[in-house]
Amino acid sequence: MSGEAAPGTFAAGFKDGWYRELSSLWPGTGMSLKVEEVLFQGRSDFQGVAVVKTESFGTVLILDGAIQCTDRDEFSYQEMIAHLPACALGRAPRRALVVGGGDGGVLRELSRHASLEEIHIAEIDGMVIDTAKKFFPQMALGYSDPRVKVHVCDGIKFVQDAEAGYYDLIVVDSSDPVGPAEVLFQKPFFEALHRALAPGGIVCTQAESLWYHLEIIKSLAAMCAEVFVGGAVQYAFTTIPTYPSGQIGFMICTKASPDAVPLDARQPRQPVPATPAAQSYPPMRYYNHAVHAAAFVLPTFAQEALESSLTKF
Amino acid sequence: MSGEAAPGTFAAGFKDGWYRELSSLWPGTGMSLKVEEVLFQGRSDFQGVAVVKTESFGTVLILDGAIQCTDRDEFSYQEMIAHLPACALGRAPRRALVVGGGDGGVLRELSRHASLEEIHIAEIDGMVIDTAKKFFPQMALGYSDPRVKVHVCDGIKFVQDAEAGYYDLIVVDSSDPVGPAEVLFQKPFFEALHRALAPGGIVCTQAESLWYHLEIIKSLAAMCAEVFVGGAVQYAFTTIPTYPSGQIGFMICTKASPDAVPLDARQPRQPVPATPAAQSYPPMRYYNHAVHAAAFVLPTFAQEALESSLTKF
C-alpha cells in the first residue's frame, strides 16, 4: 500500500503503535489506545473490521475506524442498553429482539432474564458475528443460549416483516449514524419498531453522547415523540471510557398500552437478574436498580435542550 | 531544542498539530485535541504551563502535560466540585476556602452563594493565576468578587496555620497525585483539613476516575475514614469529556458535629444559587438538585470496591 489510508478506516488512525479514533462525529478530538498486536483486519460487504490487542483495554473491535467495544469496559454499555428496558417493563419479558449487536454482548445480558422464551437477533454483517466468536468469547457467549435465534439480515426489513405486537423488548445496538447504521436513526425504522412492539413494550436504542451530539439526540427525541404517541420517550446514559466523550446514551421509547398509563422507564419494575449457572457467565458489574434511576438524570444543559421532546412524568 | 521532549511536558505530546495527553496515571490511552494555536508556553517554579487554542474545545490549560480545563466543558467540574459540598451543608455557608483552583473556576462557582462572607484561595503557583486572568476570563471572573482573598502560598501550610474550626466549606481543586499536588492526597493534609473545618463542615476534593484509579480512590477513602471519625466519607462523580475516561470524582468528607448526626451529603439542603447580577456570570449548566443526588450513585464495580471505606447511611 502507498499514500494515505482512507478516512474512516483502521489504517488511517494506526501509527507508531497507537490507534487514534478520528471521526467527523467528534471533530478535533480523538481517543488513542496503545496497540500491542493487530489480530485481524478485514472488509465485509458492509464495513471495515479490525481487531487489536491493546496495552490497557484488552482486545478491541473497530468497525469503519470507530471503536465498538473493548474487553475492559464493554460491560457498562451492554448491561445498560439491555437491563434499562428489560427492568423497566411492567411485566417480565417473554420475547426480545436485538437489532445489530453482532458482538453478542447484548445477547449475553438479555439471556440473564429467565422469563425470556425467545431472543432474536438481526445483524446485517456476518463477519462481525464470526469475529466476535473468534476474538471476544466473553461477549459471544450470548450466542450459546438455546433461546437465541440468529438472523443475518437487514435489521430494518426484519423488523418490518415481524408480526405486529410480537416483542416485549427491542434493543437497537447500532454503530454511529454514518455508514450502514444511518437508517437505524430514521423515522421509517422507528415506525417499524413501534409496530413490532407489544402494547407496553419498550425499545432501547444506542443514542450517542450528550456532550458531542445534543442536536442529533434532540432531533431523534422529537421524531420518536411523533411515533410513540400516547407512550413515552426518555433518555438515559452510561459512563464508558472508550466511547467518544466517555459516555453514551440511550433513547428509551415505550409503546402505549390501552389498559395502562405510559410507563415511566426511570423506575425499575423487574428484579436484577441472577447470574446464569453457566460457569463462563461473568457477574454483572455496572447495572443495579440505583444506577437505573440515576441514569435518567441529565445535566442541566442536556435537560434544557431535550425537555420539550422528552415525555414529562 | 533537539531530541525528544521530556515526558510530562506539553512538548512531549504535541505533534503534527495535535496534542495527545499521555501519563503514567492512564497508561496505554490518551485523549487528543487538535490544536489551532499555541498561545503560551512557560515554566513556573512548580510546573510547566501551556495554553492552546483547540478546534473543538476552545482554549485549554495544560499543566505538566495534563489537561486541566477547557472552555467547553470546565463548567461540569467547577460546578460540581463547588455546589455538591455547598448545597449539602446543613446551614448556609459563611466561610469557604479553595486549595489549588488557581484558574478561578471554583471561585466563580462559590461566589454564586450569597451567604458566603469570606472566600479564601490558597494557590501555590502564581503563574496559574496570571495565566487564567489572561486567557480564561470566564473562569477568572471569580477573582473579581470582593469577598475573595488570594493567598499565593503552599496550600498545606495555609490549612495547617488556619484557625481551628474556621471554615464551613473547603474545596481542594488539585491536579493529579504526581508532582506538586501529591501531598494533597496524603493524611497530614487531610488531618489539617479536618482541623480547619467547623463542626458539620464539609471538604470536597478532586478524587480521580472510578474507571482508571479505583485503587487510589479506595486508599484515599480508607484514609479519610480514619481522619473524619464520627463524620462521613462519601464519593460522587461528574461527566467531563476532556478528563481521562470522561469522568472525574470527588471525595466528600463531613466533620462530626456534637449536636447533630453526620450529614448524608447525597441530600441537597441548600437552594441552587441564583446567577449573580454581574453581566459576565454565565448561568449554571450542569448542577441541579437531581444531578446532586444522582452523582453519588456508583456503578456496581465501584460500589463494591469502595463500600467498606465509605460511610453507610
Automatic annotation (TrEMBL), chains A, B:
| Pfam families, sorted | Spermine_synt_N, Spermine_synth
Reactions the enzyme catalyzes: S-adenosyl 3-(methylsulfanyl)propylamine + putrescine = S-methyl-5'-thioadenosine + spermidine + H(+)
> What protein am I looking at?
spermidine synthase
Q: What InterPro entries has UniProt attached to this entry? A: PABS (IPR030374), PABS_CS (IPR030373), SAM-dependent_MTases_sf (IPR029063), Spermi_synthase (IPR001045), Spermidine_synt_N (IPR035246), Spermidine_synt_N_sf (IPR037163)
GO CC entries: cytosol
Pathway in which the depicted protein is active: Amine and polyamine biosynthesis; spermidine biosynthesis; spermidine from putrescine: step 1/1; Alkaloid biosynthesis; nicotine biosynthesis
Q: What is its EC number?
A: 2.5.1.16
Q: What's the family?
A: Belongs to the spermidine/spermine synthase family.
What residues sit in the active site? 173 (proton acceptor)
Q: Which NCBIfam families does its entry note?
A: MFS_SpdSyn, PRK00811.1, speE
Domain (PABS) ranges: 16-255
Spell out the PROSITE patterns in the cross-references: PABS_1 (PS01330), PABS_2 (PS51006)
Which residues, if any, are the signal sequence?
A: none
This entry's Gene Ontology molecular function terms read:
spermidine synthase activity
Name the Gene Ontology biological process terms.
alkaloid metabolic process; response to jasmonic acid; spermidine biosynthetic process
